[in-house]
């Protein structure tokens, strides 16, 4: 039976989050749904705050193993809220302080996803543009409906997608990333899969169900091993080859001493299901 965020943490933290972000928990899976459908789930400051708070609360919950990130139809996320941003120009500094706060806040949320102990899977139906494309690229995996489209179209409106570029270039080969950034053209789901931006493409309207199925597959593993693996994955990416091998050898040594490794290897040898403790 699905549970709300109130089953994870006390009600006091809900506030605006209950309006712009929907959070459900079903077993070891927490689903966060961007809920500004009329604005195509654009990342307003309220939504970024809600997403940041929800990630903190979900991460603190030991029984949550995987997070699925979705958008209320008809879009996944259209990027930043340009109307909200334009209103900030009326201030004496022409919006400088507001823009710095917004881009810093958004960058922090993207890093939260990367550093979250649980794997995060994006379920993409509809468009994922600008910071919405950045959001997909920041997730550990992504499932897209076959009508989903991706773009970093800031160049078309005089605003280069500089912060989305950070996540995009860590997912997509350099020349393809430059093409997306310099042309602003939409990329279909199948091409996004070829480029490595998404893991798999499914029939339109089924991305959330498919992402949830993938999440269940992942959630069946040891939560300790998921945390160790995700952390080591991102750490070694930034290291030279020899340092990466030294680091991951240390990680595997510590992992082998964990109870879940002993249990998992024992279960494999004895041909039985493993019983994970997360230790």
From TrEMBL:
<dbReference type="InterPro" id="IPR001753">
    <property type="entry name" value="Enoyl-CoA_hydra/iso"/>
</dbReference>
<dbReference type="GO" id="GO:0006631">
    <property type="term" value="P:fatty acid metabolic process"/>
</dbReference>
<keyword id="KW-0276">Fatty acid metabolism</keyword>
<comment type="function">
    <text>May play a role in fatty acid biosynthesis and insulin sensitivity.</text>
</comment>
<comment type="similarity">
    <text>Belongs to the enoyl-CoA hydratase/isomerase family.</text>
</comment>
<dbReference type="InterPro" id="IPR052377">
    <property type="entry name" value="Mitochondrial_ECH-domain"/>
</dbReference>
<dbReference type="Pfam" id="PF00378">
    <property type="entry name" value="ECH_1"/>
</dbReference>
<dbReference type="InterPro" id="IPR014748">
    <property type="entry name" value="Enoyl-CoA_hydra_C"/>
</dbReference>
<keyword id="KW-0456">Lyase</keyword>
<keyword id="KW-0443">Lipid metabolism</keyword>
<keyword id="KW-0809">Transit peptide</keyword>
<dbReference type="InterPro" id="IPR029045">
    <property type="entry name" value="ClpP/crotonase-like_dom_sf"/>
</dbReference>
<protein>
    <recommendedName>
        <fullName>Enoyl-CoA hydratase domain-containing protein 3, mitochondrial</fullName>
    </recommendedName>
</protein>
<dbReference type="GO" id="GO:0016836">
    <property type="term" value="F:hydro-lyase activity"/>
</dbReference>
